[in-house]
Amino acid sequence: MTPPNRPPVPLGQTVATPAALGLLSHPDILAALRRHAAGDWGEVDAEDRAANDRALRDGERLLSVYRSVSGDTFWVITEADRSVTTVLLPDDY
Question: DSSP string covering the chain, please?
Answer without folding.
Answer: -PPTTPPPPP--EEEE-HHHHHHS-HHHHHHHHHHHHTT--BT--HHHHHHHHHHHHHT--EEEEEE-TTS-EEEEEE-TTSSEEEEE-GGG-
